[in-house]
Design goal:
With 408 residues, this protein is mostly helical. 71% of the residues lie in helices and 1% in strands.
Length: 408
Amino acid sequence: MVLVRGSALLVALLSLAVTLGTGLAERGTALAFGALVLVGELTRWSGTHVREAAPLGAAGALSYALLGENAGRPSHHGAFQVVAVVLAAGLLGSVPHIARGHSPTLDHLARRILTVFLAAVCFQPLYGEGAFRDWVGPAYALLLLALLALTALCGAVLAAAPAHCRTRWPFGPLLREELRGLVGIGSAVCATGAVMALAVAVVGLWALPVFSLPLLLTQLSCRRHAAVRATYRQTIASLARATEVAGYTPAGHARRVAALSRAVGRDLGLAEPRLTVLEHAALMHDIGQLSLVDPVPAGATAGLPAEEQRRIALLGGAVVRQTGVDREVAVVVERQADPCREQPLPARIVRVVNAYDEKTRDAGPGGSLRALEELRLAAAGDHAYAPEVVEALARVLSRGCLTSPAAG
């Protein structure tokens, strides 16, 4: 993380120094692309699991980095000016987000600077020397797309590396998740960046608002979709709290199990869609207790006989299916009490984390270590718990990714 930020700071300072020393070339073009990046940054959203928070700003910055001509006239801005313009627009566009306390603005700007610098350095010097003079028509368009694809891969690495350093989660799954995100909004950013660079080369700066409008509308649609997903999750969280309100489970139990299950699932390399299913199932894993006539003391189902655990799990799955929640969530809830070897991985995770939370809830100092030891013994003896999940839980707790569940 320090290396990424330090490299971005060095590139930013060098770009500003060179641009101030040589002056701003083609100010109208620089202002137009700077305004486009500024609008993109002002309209970016903050939230979890967002692969590209400002797609319009990213497309505008990349198209400026790959701009060779403006209405048929060769452009003369260099790679350092590209970074300087993008940096200035990015800083101005980040002011409202910083004022509202949104984060991580610093990491966002660092990635933007480094990816744009890579694209500009790969293109601008060679274009200025006439290396691409013979690349015309589809060949030139493919060249731009290839450079953008290289830049996108670099951006994925720059996004995964700081997350790995910060959380100590495995780098491979983090990188795969970033690469998977390129298929959606990432491909739209690359395509729009290439199209805008090609269009400006032919018709001039009037192409910017025309070709940026579809991506802006896509960004607004993505924001609306994210709001729907947030409402959906809040609904599931409210349903999960029904067992707490009714006095069947202790306060905060479902939330703790969901947070820790997600961390364990990420450690085991689950992709984002499966992590979402896992989190929702963990939130609702105790909802079957609402169907019981006599509540389980303290909601501790891990110590019940296997047949009673399976009965409660099946009741919970039936309730989940009636709520209209994703069918995969209901399957995980239903199978959390099945024999370990027959369970899907998300159900194994919920079972282990639920037992851990129940064992540590009132254990006091040292309860976490004792709970892990009991889970390890049970996994090695009667195979009640999956050993790989227990070890993943131990790794997550050792890294301190989350506070102790008992702390809630």
